[in-house]
Amino acid sequence: MKKKVLLLHGWGGSDTPHWQSYIAAEIARDYGCVSFLKLPDFESPDKDIWIKETLRELREFRANVVVCHSLANTLWFHMCNSGLLEDVENLFLVAPPSLNSKIDELKNFFPVEVPKDLHAKKALLVCSDDDPYMSMKEARELQSKLGIEIKVLEKAGHINADSGFGEWEWMLKKIKSL
């Protein structure tokens, strides 16, 4: 089966120099199949529009690897809870925010229930021990509820360009090794 990677960004997007842009470019450079969906109005996102756009992309692109960053994790959880998702082979949940975030611009995304089914055959939660949007206690609780493996990065902030994650070789190798 050919690997088809869908990258889903969070609040504010993930344009260069963010690691998701790097991953998209590197996969495409090797003639890989990648979709780096630009969700609409990412500074003031609407959950229902993001769900509609993402479900359409999943249907048309037929991704078997999905990489969520930040708010895209919350988006994925909502889609899991809706019962509208088909299973993917691999899912990466990178730097999810607190499930009860109080950020005003994101209020229609929260709260969110932890899904009983992630609609992924394999899933990995990647968190930082000093993420300003989710404490390690919350990350460990989320991992326990999801029943998946966790990788904890030290002093990685929100695992974005602001915390030094532009060229993220570890993630690129992880995706390529699937």
TrEMBL record:
Top-level taxon of origin: Bacteria
InterPro entries documented for this protein: AB_hydrolase_fold, RBBP9/YdeN
Pfam family, one: Ser_hydrolase
GO molecular function, a single term: hydrolase activity
Protein name per the record: Serine hydrolase family protein
Organism of provenance: Sulfurimonas hongkongensis
